[in-house]
Write a structure and sequence with these properties.
Radius of gyration: 15 Å
Strand order of the largest sheet: 4-3-2-1-9-8-7-6-5
Largest sheet: 9 strands, antiparallel
Number of helices: 0
Strand content: over 45%
Distance between the termini: 25 Å
Number of strands: 9
Helix content: under 10%
Order of helices and strands: EEEEEEEEE
């Protein structure tokens, strides 16, 4: 597809036989209204999806000195899933994108984080802390 000026937020954590994946695509303003693009949060077990939500909030808090994310809070709610995840970023790899594929002025950030996950998915209680990954973008 055409990815110029597209960015995203996504992440993944796994514990035992359960994997949780969240994300949201942020298209350029002339392609779609970013506020109308739903996010997703899915809990996936060994036999497939356990629960999912499109009513998702992804809130990133920046370190005031670096402007990079230091904390991310993801919540997702639906009939099959009610989960809150708090990510504490402990490592960041920054790729300056220049004016190429993702457009000018954005840096691509790959994050290593500790996830604190609580809630329920498919009637199953979830409460764990584990290492995981995430990606996001920041303007310069």
């Amino acid at each position: 597809g055409f990815w110029k000026d597209v960015s995203w937020r996504w992440g993944q954590v796994q514990h035992g036989d359960l994997s949780l994946v969240y994300g949201r695509i942020r298209p350029p303003a002339d392609a779609a209204d970013a506020e109308r693009i739903p996010g997703f949060l899915a809990a996936i077990g060994p036999d497939g999806p356990v629960g999912y939500a499109t009513n998702v909030s992804i809130e990133e808090t920046n370190d005031p000195e670096t402007g990079r994310p230091r904390r991310i809070v993801v919540t997702g709610r639906s009939a099959s899933l009610d989960v809150a995840m708090e990510l504490t970023v402990d490592n960041t790899v920054v790729t300056e994108t220049g004016g190429g594929l993702f457009g000018g002025g954005l840096d691509f950030l790959q994050l290593r984080a500790i996830y604190l996950v609580r809630g329920r998915a498919g009637g199953r209680s979830i409460d764990f802390t584990a290492g995981g990954t995430a990606e996001t973008f920041r303007g310069r």
